[in-house]
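One such given next:

>
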Amino acid sequence: MPGGRQGGRRRSRLRLSNIYAFKCRKSRFQEDHSQIGGPGFSRVVYCNEPNSPASERRNYAGNYVRSTKYTPASFIPKSLFEQFRRVANFYFLVSGILSLTPLSPYSAVSALLPLGFVILVSMVKEGIEDWGRKRQDIEVNNRRVKVHDGNGTFRVEEWRDLKVGDIVRVEKDEFFPADLLLLSSSYEDSICYVETMNLDGETNLKVKQGLEATSSALHEDSDFRELKAVVRCEDPNADLYTFVGTLHLEEQRHPLSIQQLLLRDSKLRNTEYVYGAVVFTGPDTKVIQNSTDPPSKRSRIERKMDKIIYMMFFIVFLMSFIGSIIFGIETREDRVRAGGRTERWYLKPDDADIFFDSDNAPLAAILHFLTAVMLYSYFIPISLYVSIEIVKVLQSVFINNDILMYYEETDKPAHARTSNLNEELGMVDTILSDKTGTLTCNSMEFIKCSIAGTAYGRGITEVERSMAMRSGGAALVGNDLDVVVDKSGPKIKGFNFQDERVMKGNWVKQREAAVMQKFFRLLAVCHTAIPETDEATGAVSYEAESPDEAAFVVAARELGFEFFSRTQNGISFRELDLATGQKVERVYRLLNVLEFNSARKRMSVIVRDEDGKLLLLSKGADNVMFERLAKNGRKFEEKTREHVNEYADAGLRTLILAYREVDENEYIEFSKNFNEAKNSVTADRESLIDEITEQMERDLILLGATAVEDKLQNGVPECIDKLAQAGIKIWVLTGDKMETAINIGFACSLLRQEMKQIIINLETPHIKALEKAGEKDAIEQASRESVVKQMEEGKALITGSSGSGSHDAFALIIDGKSLTYALEDDFKNQFLDLATRCASVICCRSSPKQKALVTRLVKTGTGKTTLGIGDGANDVGMLQEADIGVGISGVEGMQAVMSSDIAIAQFRYLERLLLVHGHWCYSRISSMICYFFYKNITFGVTVFLYEAYTSFSAQPAYNDWFLSLFNVFFSSLPVIALGVFDQDVSSRFCYKFPLLYQEGVQNLLFSWKRIIGWMFNGVITALCIFFICKESQEHQLYNPNGKTAGREILGATMYTCIVWVVNLQMVLAISYFTWVQHIVIWGSVALWYIFLMVYGAMGPSFSTDAYKIFLEALAPAPSYWLTTLFVMIFALIPYFVFKAIQMRFFPGYHQMIQWIRYEGHSNDPEFVEMVRQRSIRPTTVGFTARRAASVRRSGRFHDQLKKNFIAF
């Protein structure tokens, strides 16, 4: 058999059948299996008969998967629908359709072509993005796998051709092509190891196991020739962790569970091959069922931009309405005068059927309204949306390629998974962060332990060093820790334990050596780690479900208890025998594993030792373990509690270790009930299992506690300090103990010594007494009242402090139980009010659901931008609920990253992401949108003024193609360059003056004041252009025959002035010039003249009134050039004067920094400090806050600020 030799060698080392399967190979049917065949359980799979008539009648989905948004048939209609869902595009579509009627003031082609160009660009962008998804689909669907051909041989087929019922052979390190029923593997007991990172983000290996009925008979390819079996199971669903079904084989029925199901997109690891029957294909597979679209997120600026568009629509319709009324009045009064001509004879009303008919003025006014709506459409920037999309994509490219956010150790750059929220990065008011794996490394090191009431371990943690710095003295260590500690770092991953009393076998000399032996045995046995022995060196390494578990197994090995092998029903380890003093091998028979989950907060194993004793070995959180101790098992409880609290103070993660001996009859009863619960398919299956395990995990005897350190990531304190200086509030939502979270807060500068802590918990004597009495309703009522009372006291404390004029900073720390009541509808606003008035907020012992609820409360309650950051699957709800979700690509897999908007490798990169890229993107997009409306209002107002000048006759001021190409060619590229390249301040100054970030938080650059200001600037500019051009051209001669300027000359002159002025306005608005900006700005101006000559050289039938207008009329006339020059000067003077006054007397924060750079004061410490102190809000978090607090307390702060600011 292929791979048989190597598989046999592995079979002697790695067999795990009972660890995860809970004796599923011999499980029995329960009455609940009657659901099979009923609603929700109707799927029937004919194994090895995919083409049988019975299979084909089922008409199950094929294995082809599609993640694309479009198909070739749906691309055009669906993408067009997406484009015209935007109200602006729909408006231009209606205008384009109306341009096909006689009411149009311009030709239909000139109206529809720019719209078509913009829509085409957007559709091309959509198509390119979807083609990327299509290529991924092609790669996945064309993967190949071995499929049984019915004759005992396997042929290679593509994934997309698989059918339900096919038998496939998957080799090591290959992905599973569909959801498969595991039939057999290269191991005798039919187990295999599976990596599910693509499904749930977890990097640890899972163990799956086939049924004994199939694994005993199916060993080689030829064994499948006569296989006939039927699977009846649940219908397709999204639950990754359950599966209910039955296998009908040789007139026998066998129950199936998730243990036999291999999920699509998971990978086969550490197993040479497996055979499986296809149960779910394509869209029916669980991974595809789970692939829901992430929640749609739009930035605040984009939503505000929509409001501006609606406001512009209102203005357009109002102008059209007013103009049509005036036009109707003028038309009604336009009677025939003396001489047989009307007053507006040049409009040829006699040739008009309705439009200028003075006898039908109301209808003429209505028709004029429609015409004016089309004419004034140039107030709305047609290219705004597509330009912003292009800019955001290019901004994302810069973020993705920023070398300063590239983590070389894991080869992971920053990755903006969506470009919709770029500017939102510059507006974050509150960061809600996970702790483990986000602020810390999630790389655990065993550093201390407490055994039999004695503390061991001389290592000093980062938190202890931070505490020593806060106290100004030596590190806070025990009295007996007076030895020199090796600070060179751990030589073994996961192990940083140093204590000569335990190391090198010295533990046997301790008074409680027997207890210590049980403690270390528990570490070596109570786990689900997988050993791997290097056959060359004999070294043993471990694959563990979590970094904590790996650290425990490594610690046991380094302390003399080396776990080295698993067999089908046993665990083998080497230990030092107390009697002989020699290394001996022990084999414990493994009977059951009671798995860890976030609700149980513990795991246990039931084993039989070499003396035949049944033992329950358990480890778990202190708050669940202490209450499960027997009365005679609390000998070391008091001392252990003290040590656990000390470890928590030192920022360590702790677990309690305990055991008990189990009676034979008790175990028989437990095993029976446990198997029945595991095999049930009722809704309360999990609760039944928990109830049975609860009965077993009781009356434990305490052994001690472990303490592992999760080190802070590099740069976390500095990053938090800089973010705090930027005025960003930082909340930490963690599942750790309150003491651990508080001390981690101190270590990372989230808390400081001067802060007053408001602690909300339910550790009152009254509530503890009620808990002992077990009165559930009374406990709930007392807890609720206690939380409300503590919140009111905290709020009064803050109010009293602010009333006294002090500058005290407050930190709110609340535990998970209290948070449950604080988040209730009646009290959540009170909690939010208290929390937002604090400098730091830490939520301890919080569940994933609570993290999401807190995030939602902050987002909706404050109305400000929130950013969630985390690294694990338990953070997904928080990331999706926040305005921006940032995933850390860390140890816990990719689940958080896959649910995020932006992925980074380290928390410290958040500083550059927000303070530099966030501020730049916000500043660029804000300026870009303001400029868009400025240039369109400038252009649109000149159209309006000319039409008003011509008695609202719907006469456009410009040639049709002049109108159409303004937004597309002559003014769009400079604004795109502004959105991509402009920098109001450099990255160095973004770091140096982090309070600059508050411009985005308070939305100063996209406030209604600034938007209206830019619009007003556009109106002023248009007035200058129109009236100067009109007056200057009124009496000018443009040829030797004495012909004066007509509409075509006036229009071309005004258009030239507009092109010059809006591009020069861009020059004044740009803060950072690059060669790209020079090319697009001066190129846009040059393009206008080139277009004017080329378009004018075309025949009069096409160029109409622009025929040779530049070469024959405009260019030879000095007045044309003088008018253009004067207009440029006068139109830009108002903006220039305003900016000069603002810069001199009312500078914004970024303008102050620009002035510092211009004056050369950037290296003057006193001057720079003065600008820093001109804070939009005081800094209260971070180590820099200590210095600011001391300055404030010195009484010199206000005097120095006033003195320096006057000098500035």
